Amino acid sequence: MKFLNKIIHELLAQNPDLSAFNIILPGKRPIVFIRQILEEKNYSGFLPNFFTIEELINTIADRQVIQGIPLWLFSFNVYRSLNLIPRDDFSDFLKWFPTLQKDWDDILKFSDSDEAVLQYMFDEERIKEWAQNLGEDDDVPRRKFLNFWQNMNIFLPELKSRLQEKNWATSGMIHEAAKASILDFAKNTQEHFVFCGFNAFTPVEEKLVRSLLKWNKAQCFFQADQYYFNDERQEAGKFLRNHKTWKEFDDNRAFQWIEDDFSQPKKIKVYEVSGNVTQTKVLPEIFKEINNKTYSNTAVVLLDENLLPASLDVMHGVDNLNITMGFPLKNLSFSNAVKRLFYLQKQLEKNKTSYYYRDVFPILEELPKSAKDGLIINDFKTKIEERNIVYISQKLLNELLGELSYFGLLQKAAGTHAYLDILIAFCHQVKWLEIDDIQYENVSHFENAFRVIKNQLTPYNIEIKMETLEILINQHINSESIDFQGEPLRGLQIMGLLETRLLNFENVILLSVNEGKLPLGNSQNTYIPFDIRRFFDLHTFLENDSIYAYHFYRLIQDAQNVHLLYNALSSGVNTGEKSRFITQIEMESSHQIEHLIIENASDPIVTKPIEISKTEIVRERLQKWKEKVSASHLTSYLYNPIDFYLSKILNTSESDEIEEELSVKNYGNLVHYSLQEVYEGLKGKVLKESDLQKSVKAIDQFINIAIEKLKHQQEFYEKGMNYIHKAIAKKVIENILNHDLDLIRQGNKLEIIDIERRFENVEFYLDGNDKISFLGFIDRIDKLNGTLRIIDYKTAKIKNLHVKIDADNVEDYFHNSDRKQALQLCIYHYVVQHLPEFWGFPIETGIWSFAEAKKGMVPLVFDKGDIDDAMRSVKSLILEILNPDIDFVESIKSY
């Protein structure tokens, strides 16, 4: 820490007792390093006092700081009392006040008179209105903006007055209050102040420093470098060049210090990386180049705080890490769950009868839970997925989740105050669970915020809707971060750019060195136009760019190895453009810069098919399988042997998922179950016209029974694509009934023999005494004019029902998945032949496709060979499945 060492050396030379000094720093981060330096120097006296400059200004102003939620509520109370037009409610007020308040603080900090700036804004808008002749319509944006500034000229002075009455102040008001007391403070104080490592000052801070210098009660140590200080074009030295012109710096008091470190030899590498998170994957390679494996003199600077989790993932091999940056509260799971809770409440205000499952599931997944709650949630999800319930009724939710410890959070709130009480109780309860430290901090932040809101709301009598409470919470979430505490003197430092102030590192790695990240660019969130900011000497994006430039150059001026990574991909708000600071170094500095391009490889992944050998236990399971072989097992094997292995050998099944739109499988089931209900009532009868006509009229009833079998809700089919699917299903059933009706009208005799006929223990011999037993269901067996028809329903179209088997292809004819429909029909034919009740009847097998329902049953036809030849091919397929030397090999489908 070269700069800090230099300061301590200078102070000890002035006075061996450092307790005589008050050291003023831009932030508190360097204090621990100063203590380490003093320990290394064997300093045994009292430590100096440490302050940030904000703390010193606050001490001089002697005001109570008010910010965040308390300030918003107090300000709205003032705004409401003025009866301004338009009269915004609290939710609308929150949409503009936080931005206005930042602008107001800027005005108070940098201008001589906030009222002059406000009046100027109003006059500017009046001139624009006069020039453009906007008419009398109040909805014209220009007129609304004029009205806004007219109101602000009334509201902000009144707000300031009311805050002063209570001795409260925003950060801008603190500066304004301190301004009047600085001269007296500088003249009367007996303390000595040391200002270290500052760059840009507000006018009040500058006045304080210069006044103390004037009375010889302060000294300043700046860290400048000739590279950017002497070059007027370099924005990094803009503020320091101005400070050097202060009259307080003369022959008796030199400007300290202007160093020449940037020009010293450095190894600079610039990495063009394809992807944001991909930058973190480069870190392990960079670490390999660092000799000191404790990484005690290395800093990873994240210009995008969202990269922290990914960075930590790749640093698992680093023994000691110290995170000295905040992590945004909004990126944590509990924060997301809280947002979803408020969204759910808003939905319940619109629809009090049911819950959309996608509104409930994420909340249950993301909120911390006890073991008991976990079991309740798993049972709830299982039942909802089994029954495919998209919209969950209040009654069902009570039935399935009523025992949940935080069930009150999911019910429609009686009011915002009552809901805050439930949230506070829940946060308190969660902290007793076994949760990690980060989640504990997250929950604690929210508990504190909920308590603050509840306590602050009480005296104001402000009516808050759930939507307003949501906005209030979101404003809080977006402005808060969780601070990490670690051991800053050991290991690798992970930092934000502002945390690097006054600190120096031998190895510096910066991620996201992109335009828009470094510097932030001209995307200032403000209501005050650029030209007015310049006129009143308020900071603009240009000053902010200079501040960022200084932090960047100061950080690398003492480093020996510098690694600058940027995301070269354009996506979202990221332009994929490297920071202009990189370009400046490339073009203006004397350093040789190595450029590397890191591609995020997108080559297709070469995957080998899964192979499962038939071990002893697999062979045992196959022997067991032989007792219950169905046609669907064989078609599953044809489609993909691994699917067969997973479902028939391992007995696994796919998990249920909620369908918002009816799947092809369940569409088929809907028609299938409906037809089952239709013909179950006609079983054993020779059909008459009247039977089928009655059935056609009752189709809706049959479909409703099928929906119950599917465990679906009727509401599922009331709108959207599912309404259309149901209508199509009804048409298909109607076509099938009408086809049978036409057969009867044409003089045919049609008798329904059986529906969903179950068969089992139908033996089929392989070699010698080795045999298997067929098991399954036949969708429909009827008799048309004396011929027994075996019918299988299919959702898909009919394919390859003309069988051509000869001596050349008999062994492998059914080893083709395109012939699986014919394979299934051949097995059904064999089974029916061997059922005694059907002996002696001519047999016809066929498919009735829902996609072509009007065609009726399309029969299986043997152009070559017969059923015996077909069963030889089936036997060959079964023997292959049982063959211990043939592995189960995954079928890779090409698309």
From TrEMBL:
Domain PD-(D/E)XK endonuclease-like, residue spans: 629-890
InterPro entries: P-loop_NTPase (IPR027417), PDDEXK-like_dom_sf (IPR011604), PDDEXK_AddAB-type (IPR038726), Restrct_endonuc-II-like (IPR011335)
Family matches, as Gene3D superfamilies: 3.90.320.10
Regions crossing the membrane: none
Source superkingdom: Bacteria
Coiled coil: none
Name of the molecule in the record: PD-(D/E)XK nuclease family protein
Species in which this protein is naturally found: Chryseobacterium pennae
